């Protein structure tokens, strides 16, 4: 009986089975090109835990029929690794056989220790595949970086995790269809895994051990992971109810309620980028010209989430929600654009008035393009007395009249 962890038992056996990294493994993408060329280069795989770094390294070694030696920088010393690099050098000279040296958590070696790899990389003795969760720009020395290619791996999406969990349930090496589990429990496992397949599969395995009558309920999963599933259906009514509550709390200038609904969504596993998109929309729909800085704050929150992810990025969303709730409100531009859009769609598409047409050629000038145009900066307050609408919409107003500060 195979007693290895579930995450190891159902590890993909083909690069085509790896999820979430199509930007590297898909047709025409960097690692795929190396496979097709038959020549593998040393590389650093930079990405969050449980996204497939080790699996990619193992499958590359299998594809290229290379010896595969794996170390963790957390438990192995550089002296031990030097010995294996020397052995790889002998194999290369005697049998012309490639050796892939996989170093997990390579960032744990200090920069002086990293120099030990350089001579073997220079001679082509080894193909180094380093895995790291830390930014290589800060953790690896420039000499090593110049001899390797850095590839950034994506965190797995909730949909990827759901697919992996269902694969584990079906696989003969996994749970072999012995267990039934509701979609709600699978979604919960995906939510709490935070993009880490290993976390999700460990939770599933623990739940299977605790299950009775081959039935894994949501309650069992909650118990083994020691976290309660919040009532939230990302595709159903509760999803729309809570985003509506967040939107209306901000519109009603109640930052405390807005923070509560934000927390409900994030802790239930909502995609933070979905929330960020809604905040951008709110900033232009409900605040608009009353506080143009609101849009800047919303875009910055979106960028922060994309840059640092969760949970740190949650605070950027919280900052944004509080700012938007406290900001002055105006839907003037929202209403005005709706009116302009209606006119654009429902009225005849009249030609642009001749005096505001561009005249880049002599013929167009002779035809009267631009004739009679008044240059606004030549008039008081940079406002010339001329019409900019087509004739049928002359003097149309969408925006409210500006009120002068002294009025």
UniProtKB/TrEMBL annotation:
Entry keyword set = ATP-binding, DNA replication, Nucleotide-binding
Tell me which InterPro entries the record gives.
AAA+_ATPase, AAA_assoc_2, AAA_ATPase_RarA/MGS1/WRNIP1, ATPase_AAA_core, DNA_pol3_clamp-load_cplx_C, MgsA_C, P-loop_NTPase
* Superkingdom assignment: Bacteria
Which family does the record claim for this protein?
Belongs to the AAA ATPase family. RarA/MGS1/WRNIP1 subfamily.
Biological role: DNA-dependent ATPase that plays important roles in cellular responses to stalled DNA replication processes.
Sequence ranges assigned to domain AAA+ ATPase in this UniProt record? 39-156
**Looking at the Swiss-Prot or TrEMBL record, what is one Pfam family this protein matches?**
AAA_assoc_2
One GO biological process term: DNA synthesis involved in DNA repair
| The name this protein goes by in its record | Replication-associated recombination protein A
Molecular function via GO = ATP binding; ATP hydrolysis activity; DNA binding; enzyme activator activity; single-stranded DNA helicase activity
**From what organism does this protein derive?**
candidate division WOR-3 bacterium RBG_13_43_14
């Amino acid at each position: 009986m195979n007693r290895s962890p579930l995450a190891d038992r159902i590890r993909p056996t083909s690069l085509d089975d790896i999820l979430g990294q199509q930007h590297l493994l898909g047709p025409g993408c960097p690692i795929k090109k190396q496979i097709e060329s038959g020549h593998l280069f040393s590389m650093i795989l930079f990405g969050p835990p449980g996204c497939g770094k080790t699996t990619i390294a193992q499958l590359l070694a299998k594809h290229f029929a290379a010896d595969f030696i794996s170390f963790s920088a957390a438990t192995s010393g550089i002296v031990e690794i030097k010995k294996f690099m020397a052995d790889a050098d002998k194999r290369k000279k005697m049998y012309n056989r490639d050796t892939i040296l996989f170093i997990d958590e390579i960032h744990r070696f200090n920069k002086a220790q990293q120099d030990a790899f350089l001579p073997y990389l220079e001679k082509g003795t080894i193909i180094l595949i380093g895995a790291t969760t830390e930014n290589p720009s800060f953790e690896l020395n420039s000499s090593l970086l110049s001899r390797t290619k850095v590839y950034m791996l994506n965190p797995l999406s909730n949909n990827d995790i759901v697919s992996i969990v269902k694969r584990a349930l079906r696989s003969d090496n996994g749970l072999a269809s012995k267990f039934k589990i509701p979609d709600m429990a699978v979604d919960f496992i995906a939510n709490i895994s935070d993009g880490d397949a290993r976390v999700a599969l460990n939770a599933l395995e623990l739940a299977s051990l605790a299950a009775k009558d081959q039935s894994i309920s949501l309650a069992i999963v909650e118990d083994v992971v020691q976290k309660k599933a919040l009532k939230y259906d990302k595709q159903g009514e509760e999803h729309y109810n809570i985003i509506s509550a967040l939107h209306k709390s901000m519109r009603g200038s109640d930052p405390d309620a807005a923070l509560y609904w934000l927390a409900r969504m994030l802790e239930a596993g909502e995609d933070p980028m979905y929330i960020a998109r809604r905040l951008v929309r709110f900033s232009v729909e409900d605040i608009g010209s009353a506080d143009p800085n609101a849009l800047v704050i919303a875009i910055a929150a979106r960028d922060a989430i994309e840059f640092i992810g969760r949970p740190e990025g949650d605070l950027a969303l919280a900052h944004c929600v509080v700012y938007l709730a406290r900001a002055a409100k105006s839907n003037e531009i929202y209403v005005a654009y709706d009116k302009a859009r209606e006119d654009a769609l429902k009225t005849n598409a009249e030609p642009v008035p001749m005096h505001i047409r561009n005249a880049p050629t002599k013929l167009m000038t002779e035809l009267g393009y631009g004739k009679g145009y008044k240059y606004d900066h030549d008039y008081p307050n940079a406002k010339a007395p001329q019409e900019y609408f087509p004739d049928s919409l002359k003097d149309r107003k969408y925006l409210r009249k500006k009120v002068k500060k002294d009025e």
